[in-house]
From TrEMBL:
Alphabetized UniProt keyword annotations: Methyltransferase, Transferase
Domain Methyltransferase: 42-134
GO molecular function annotation: methyltransferase activity
Name by which UniProt lists this protein: Class I SAM-dependent methyltransferase
Organism: Streptomyces akebiae
Length: 263
């Protein structure tokens, strides 16, 4: 077992496992920013390989991509030039006061804040980084989905793909830690290149829609949208022209919130 992350440590492998040729997540984020009149300065917090940051840059925004992984940042700088890329921890970061008109945080990145203190650090950092009236756009798993549902739990999910001539196979099992309010993930990697199996463990905080609404409101944000889709990881996925729904019951949660214009 290791606390390292095979995909995070190998960005090209990550992109092979999670291809996004249509830049769906970046297009969805830009749609949210445009519909709500966000200014041009955007922080992509948890930018990963830089694909979404690069898309926002190419549509005319001034983008900073931030991530904790040096490997991801090096890949982003080489593969997706244009945005500025900096190392920062979403649990607490200071990239300048009122330096951004929007903070984008996709693919469940906020859920790596496992404790209330970490959530407080993330939201306080976003508030400090954003100009008055700025937008927070986030997309994540929906804790409410797991109330009474077990279809995603316990049964291993297998995925196989080939990258640079090597066949990879991942077996992923999800369990709910109700005491910690975490969705725990165990993933076992095997490959046909003779490498020994690698077991990795990680977790996401399970946030519920009304809990998230309360957290944001208490920190001076007005929640403009809070729904389960359509979004970049829903089925069917979001496409241009599709407006947000009114429910928050499915397995993804999408939020757009505006920082108050006055403290």
């Amino acid at each position: 077992m290791t606390n390292a992350n095979l995909l995070t440590d190998n960005p090209e492998l990550y992109e092979a496992r999670f291809p996004d040729p249509g830049r769906l997540a970046g297009r969805w984020a830009e749609d949210c920013l445009r519909r709500h009149g966000a200014g041009p300065r955007v922080l992509d917090m948890g930018c990963g390989t830089g694909r979404d940051a690069a898309h926002l840059h190419h549509v005319g925004r001034t983008v900073t991509g931030a991530d904790l992984s040096e490997a991801m940042l090096a890949h982003a700088r080489a593969r997706y030039p244009g945005p500025a890329y900096v190392r920062a921890d979403l649990h607490g970061f200071d990239l300048g006061r009122a330096a951004f008109d929007a903070v984008v945080c996709l693919d469940s990145s906020p859920l790596y804040c496992h404790t209330n203190d970490q959530l407080d650090g993330f939201l306080s950092s976003c508030r400090r980084a954003m100009a008055p009236g700025g937008l927070l756009v986030a997309e994540m798993r929906n804790g409410a989905y797991f109330l009474g549902r077990t279809d995603l739990l316990g049964t291993p999910a297998v995925n196989a793909f080939t990258w640079q001539g090597t066949a990879y196979r991942s077996t992923t099992t999800l369990t709910v830690d109700r005491t910690a309010q975490l969705l725990r993930r165990t993933r076992v990697w095997t490959s046909d290149d003779g490498a020994p199996p690698v077991e990795q463990r990680s977790a996401w905080r399970l946030l519920f829609p009304q809990e998230l609404r309360h957290l944001l409101t208490a920190r001076g944000f007005e929640v403009l949208e809070l729904h389960d889709g359509p979004g970049p990881r829903t089925e069917p996925p979001w496409r241009e022209g599709r407006l947000p729904g009114r429910t928050a019951d499915a397995d993804r949660l999408h939020v757009v919130a505006r920082l108050a214009s006055t403290p």
